[in-house]
């Protein structure tokens, strides 16, 4: 028998949660209503990664085009911050 | 998957000294309506879970050619026809500025993601405010281009073949400069 829609959805939800690496998980979800500063205080992102995620697209592309930054560094920074966003406000449906 | 792609772009840069395109290495988030090969497109429908795409949407291909890295698909309301973001797959998406507020919709996952700076350029779609509402709710810049300005081919939608009211693709970003860029590179490609 096919799984019920609740099971299918639960399975998908578990897969999304499971795709977040252990070290990027938040132990306790912040109780604050405003979570905008969370990425800076969580300790999951390094200062450099916070700076990357808070700079402009134009700057980032320029830095990558001149070899000052690697795409891996930029992608990792955004993956981390996206993982936090998912845990705090539930914004992702696939990783 | 995202890091493998980023590594590939880094290797390309190292070996040739050249960038792949104007968006070289930049992570771009996609609304869960764009088809990416090997990834599910749910559009908020539980029934669509487990169907893995066999090909990319045209805009996805263009972004890849420009050097983008895809790392996340963001949540949408089921069917996309609502100005908030809630579905039976992951539940409700809320506003990072205040979790009691809505993040808007239907590109609400994009709005929340870019608003939280978990993304730098998000690509959404809009018929009656689906880019503009989440942009406004999350203090971002968004544009709903004229119909057909950005290619919509091979996108997922609830009512394919419905030609009366068109949906269009457009960016959601932090700054105008960041927004103009994706539009510019498409001009270059065409």
Protein topology:
The complex is a heterodimer of chains A (95) and B (190).
Chain A: H1 5-18, H2 38-41, H3 47-53, H4 57-65, H5 71-89, E1 92-94
Helix pairs in contact in A: 3-5
Chain B: H1 2-16, E1 27-31, H2 58-65, E2 69-74, E3 86-87, E4 91-92, E5 94-95, E6 98-102, H3 108-115, E7 121-126, H4 132-137, E8 141-142, E9 168-173, H5 176-189
Parallel strand pairs in B: 1-2, 1-7
Antiparallel strand pairs in B: 3-4, 5-6, 7-9, 8-9
Task: Write up this protein.
- The complex is a heterodimer of chains A (95) and B (190).
- Chain A starts with a helix and ends with a strand.
- Chain A has one domain (28-95).
- In chain A, helix 3 (47-53) crosses helix 5 (71-89).
- Chain A has 95 residues and is mostly helical.
- Chain A has helices spanning 5-18, 38-41, 47-53, 57-65, 71-89, and one strand at 92-94.
- Chain A is globular, with a radius of gyration of 16 Å.
- With 190 residues, chain B is of the alpha/beta class.
- Chain B has one domain (21-189): Amidase signature (AS) enzymes, CATH 3.90.1300.10.
- Chain B is built from five helices and nine strands.
- Chain B has a five-stranded mixed sheet with strand order 2-1-7-9-8, sandwiched between helices. A two-stranded antiparallel sheet of chain B has the order 3-4. In chain B, strands 5-6 form a two-stranded antiparallel sheet.
- In chain B, helix 2 links the parallel strand 1 (27-31) and strand 2 (69-74).
- Chain B is globular.
- The interface between A and B is large, with 45 and 64 residues.
- Strand 1 of chain A pairs antiparallel with strand 2 (69-74) of chain B.
């Amino acid at each position: 028998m096919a799984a019920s829609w609740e099971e299918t959805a639960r399975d998908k939800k578990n897969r999304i949660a499971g795709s977040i690496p252990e070290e990027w998980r938040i132990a306790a979800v912040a109780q604050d209503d405003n979570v905008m500063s969370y990425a800076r205080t969580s300790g999951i992102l390094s200062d450099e990664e916070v700076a990357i995620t808070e700079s402009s697209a134009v700057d980032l592309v320029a830095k990558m085009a001149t070899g000052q930054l690697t795409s891996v560094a930029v992608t990792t920074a955004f993956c981390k911050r996206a993982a936090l966003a998912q845990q705090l406000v539930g914004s992702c449906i696939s990783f | 998957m995202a890091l493998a792609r980023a590594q590939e772009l880094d290797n390309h840069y190292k070996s040739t000294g050249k960038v792949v395109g104007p968006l070289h290495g930049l992570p771009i988030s996609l609304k869960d309506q764009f088809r990416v090969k090997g990834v599910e497109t749910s559009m908020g429908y539980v029934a669509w879970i487990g169907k893995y795409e066999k090909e990319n949407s045209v805009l996805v291909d263009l972004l890849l050619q420009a050097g983008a890295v895809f790392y996340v698909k963001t949540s949408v309301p089921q069917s996309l026809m609502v100005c908030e973001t809630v579905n039976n797959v992951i539940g409700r998406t809320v506003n990072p500025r205040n979790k009691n507020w809505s993040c808007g919709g239907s590109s609400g996952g994009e709005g929340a993601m870019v608003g939280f700076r978990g993304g730098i350029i998000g690509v959404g779609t809009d018929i009656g405010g689906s880019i503009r509402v989440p942009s406004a709710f999350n203090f971002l810049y968004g544009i709903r281009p004229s119909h057909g300005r950005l290619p919509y081919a091979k996108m997922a939608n609830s009512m394919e073949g419905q030609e009366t009211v068109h949906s269009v693709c457009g960016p959601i970003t932090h700054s105008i400069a960041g927004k103009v860029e994706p539009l510019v590179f498409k001009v270059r490609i065409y």
